[in-house]
Task: inverse folding
């Protein structure tokens, strides 16, 4: 079965750029999306179709997808961006990455 | 604006069937070409996709890891879709989410708040 791998945790200082990776076989041939989940809340879509932002998502969120890796980039990270982030793709079913806890120190 | 709301028993006994309903407001589930999904999250863990049903009700797709225990259906008259998960065990204890999915690209753009289901005698 298809697997997506994310680092368990990423730390970033306020105002700096955070990058969260998602790896999977030939992931660049598929569409990747990203969700943000804060404690006690449901996931929120922040990037879809590799690099598109839904309405209401700040411009500091961006995405890319090539080769075997998709990347979520948060520029000028703010304290409010501290959350769990999940990548997702489709391969004979919806597949989620294991999630990355982003800490803003 | 589209809203999804999960409902159902918070406690289910082992070996019984878990039944949840997702009520959709602000849009018709039978139009728009969307697919309607169930996802769960075990305590302190990541997201696990359970399955989806296409807006016409003609197609369903399930996570093979459920070993055919899952069933998703539409009730267009009530603008709802439902999940049944049979022969539950403690491993099915989780927060269950319903979500709307975009066909072709498979991202889920609208999620319910989730409902906690505990499997225990």
Result:
């Amino acid at each position: 079965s298809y697997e997506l791998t994310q680092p368990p945790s990423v730390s970033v200082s306020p105002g700096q750029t955070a990058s969260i990776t998602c790896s999977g076989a030939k992931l660049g041939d598929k569409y990747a999306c990203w969700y943000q989940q804060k404690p006690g809340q449901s996931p929120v879509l922040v990037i879809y179709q590799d690099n598109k932002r839904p309405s209401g998502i700040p411009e500091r969120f961006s995405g890319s997808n090539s080769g075997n890796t998709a990347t979520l980039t948060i520029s000028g990270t703010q304290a409010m961006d501290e959350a769990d982030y999940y990548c997702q793709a489709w391969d004979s079913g919806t597949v989620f990455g294991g999630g990355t806890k982003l800490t803003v120190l | 604006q589209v809203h999804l709301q999960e409902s159902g028993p918070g406690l289910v006994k082992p070996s019984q069937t878990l039944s949840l309903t997702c009520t959709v407001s602000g849009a018709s589930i039978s139009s728009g070409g969307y697919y309607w999904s169930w996802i769960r999250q075990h305590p302190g863990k990541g997201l696990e996709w359970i399955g989806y049903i296409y807006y016409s009700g003609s197609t369903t797709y399930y996570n093979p890891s459920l070993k055919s225990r899952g069933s998703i259906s539409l009730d267009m008259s009530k603008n709802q879709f439902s999940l049944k998960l049979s022969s539950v065990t403690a491993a099915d204890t989780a927060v269950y989410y319903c979500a709307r999915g975009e066909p072709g690209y498979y991202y889920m753009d609208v999620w319910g708040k989730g409902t906690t289901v505990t499997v225990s005698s």
User: Anything to note?
Assistant: Chain B is about 0% helix and 50% strand. The radius of gyration of chain B is 14 Å. The first strand of chain B starts at residue 3 and ends at 7.
